[in-house]
Amino acid sequence: MAQPLVKKDDDRDEEADYSPFLGIEKGAVLQEARVFNDPQLDARRCSQVITKLLYLLNQGETFTKVEATEVFFAVTKLFQSRDIGLRRMVYLMIKELSPSADEVIIVTSSLMKDMNSRTDMYRANAIRVLCRITDGTLLTQIERYLKQAIVDKNPVVASAALVSGIHLLQTNPEIVKRWSNEVQEAVQSRAALVQFHALALLHQIRQNDRLAVSKLVTSLTRGTVRSPLAQCLLIRYTSQVIRESGYNLQTGDRPFYDYLEGCLRHKAEMVIFEAAKAITELSGVTTRELTPAITVLQLFLSSSKPVLRFAAVRTLNKVAMTHPMAVTNCNIDMESLISDQNRSIATLAITTLLKTGNESSVDRLMKQITNFMSDIADEFKIVVVEAIRSLCLKFPLKYRSLMNFLSSILREEGGFEYKKAIVDSIVILIRDIPDAKESGLLHLCEFIEDCEFTYLSTQILHFLGNEGPKTPDPSKYIRYIYNRVILENPTVRASAVSTLAKFGALVDTLKPRIFILLRRCLFDNDDEVRDRATLYLNSLGDGQVVETDEDVKKFLFGSLDIPLTNLETSLKSYAQNPAEEPFDINSVPREVKSQPLVEKKAPGKKPTGLGAPPPPPTSAADAYERVLSSIPEFASFGKLFKSSAPVELTEAETEYAVNVVKHIFDNHVVFQYNCTNTIPEQLLENVTVIVEPSEAEEFSEVGTKPLKSLPYDTPAQTFVAFEKPEGVPAVGKFSNMLRFSVKEVYIFLNWALLLRKYVAVDNALQ
């Protein structure tokens, strides 16, 4: 039962609300459900029990088959009650239980009786439930009733039938498409919701026929739609037709643009905004076309309704990205929104002003933002920081005030993403504005003195190592860097050692001082720090003021052209099979190992911050295309159209793991088999996959690329290419058989060699 509302005292701030569902258990509720079997039904109590059952179902509670069946049959007995509220609860319960085909028959007759009832509430709900639980066979039997319901005079019944049609279109499209005449009649209804639902269903029925959609839009834009909701829907469909039609090359006009512009004078605010939004999102929109939409949005900026102000400023913010000059007329109105109580509106106003403002307004905006930043959440602060970065790149002469602002908010409290956005912005300004380099580097040095994020500290140290030696006075950064060796965790200390080495390699006058600091690092309690210090001391020479060799500079500053996963695998293999010869880095394969990659969709191109200037590939498709283009046999296949997700061909516990990726070209299909040997004692040679098309007569094999060897735990690929007929849809099945030769590998440890290496490292540390 529901627990009472407890009021501790007269102070409303200390009222305690308790959930009526607090502490209910499935077993207890199922026991309570026995009231459904009482000869004298208590409608109020039955409704409370159904409410609890619905709560449990919506909270993810699962009922066993027996429990669900018992509840279902008990609920069906409630059809004998004439209480309207209880009957609506029964409908909800049947929908949520989703009975099986055998159980549906039990309630079908009751629901069909309700569907023809004189009570409109029964009819509407019975239609919704029947369409939810029935299959195609029963649907054909009740199709006549559904058609009648679509044109029913009661808007509740008509909307129920139309919404059910929208859902049924996904499972029984052929049946729903036969209702077109009735749905077209419903589009002319005077009821707002009926017209809205009818238009949505009619568009879904015709959505695969561009000509039919265009005719629908043409007929409805002549003024037959009265419902504001349907009008908004029609505006979206009109925008779709405009995008597909494009410009009229002879007249230079867009089709239906006059209709969108006419909607800007509609009496409903939602229609006005939808039309303005549609105009601003047109591809290749001109300033003349934008002007009426911008004027309407400017009026919304001074509205008393927060939702209208938010919608207007959000749309103008998007327009400012592509047409900043078109939004400048709204700047005065947006400046008044900076002090808006809704922080989301204020943030959007600030960022829009930063995109559209001129050089003379920068200082005034900075003063307003300073007081504003402490009141908003981190995600809004990030938006402001990115806008300031864009403004600084637009007006480079204002870098001092903008850089000072970024450094001041960098010292304030904030989360990792917020601090990273600020650091990235400072880094980009340093790279793009040469005059900002020294002040920007000092701001970053001050930040790492009290930085709680290891990732940011290491990235800033890496950036300092690349840019610091190029400044007129690089010695002033040494103190900040060496402080990290003394005060930070091992990861930051190791990064600081590498940064010191870069200063020593590029600034010859600093080399003796760098040597002293690196020698102190030999006594660090972390292996990585000591190893790096030893490596750099041996690489930089004897510490004299002489120019560093180009090979050493290339070693310290050059990019590693070997995939780290390949290097790690080769080093593991060398450690497990030691040899007399030292490890040769040239033996590491340069090919990218194909692994299941997670595709990240970025919302747009943003300047990269602390990463390397050329950004790495962000999708599996880029990696696959690079691998395939490097294979001469497949270079003539053209551009890669699509690559599938990896499909496992073997069980997880098998000795050899194989998965396949299908690459689709215009006239070819390439199967990439990713193979892994999981047995340490075996070396596989001449690895290939024999592919036989069992039901694919149209395909013919045109090439293979076998694997010469497959060592233990080293993923590699073999490829098989097939040619497919041009311009004809081809489908086939292929059987795969892995073929290889096996060589036994004897694993032993060369203790004498390991001992000599240990002594050599120990002497170097001493």
Attribute tags:
alpha+beta, three-stranded antiparallel beta sheet, 766 residues, 9 strands, six-stranded antiparallel beta sheet
Describe the structure.
With about 775 residues, the protein is of the alpha+beta class. It contains 34 helices and nine strands. The strands form two sheets. Strands 1, 2, 3, 4, 6 and 8 form a six-stranded antiparallel beta sheet that branches. Strands 7-5-9 form a three-stranded antiparallel beta sheet, with no helix packed on it. Helix 12 (about 210-220) packs across helix 13 and helix 15 (about 270-280) runs antiparallel to helix 16. The longest helix is centred in the N-terminal third of the chain and has 18 residues, at about 230-245. The chain is globular. The N and C termini lie far apart (about 80 Å).
Quick recap:
The protein is an alpha+beta fold and 766 residues long. Helices cover 54% and strands 8% of the residues.
Quaternary state, please? single chain
The secondary-structure class comes to alpha+beta
Rg from alpha-carbon coordinates = 35 Å
- Envelope shape: globular
Indicate the proportion of strand residues.
Answer: 5-15%
Low-confidence region ranges = 1-16, 594-618, 747-766
The end-to-end distance, rounded to whole angstroms, is: 78 Å
Number of helices: 34
Mean pLDDT value: 82
How much helicity do the residues have?
A: 40-55%
- The total beta strand count reads 9
Query: Biggest sheet, in brief?
Result: 6 strands, antiparallel
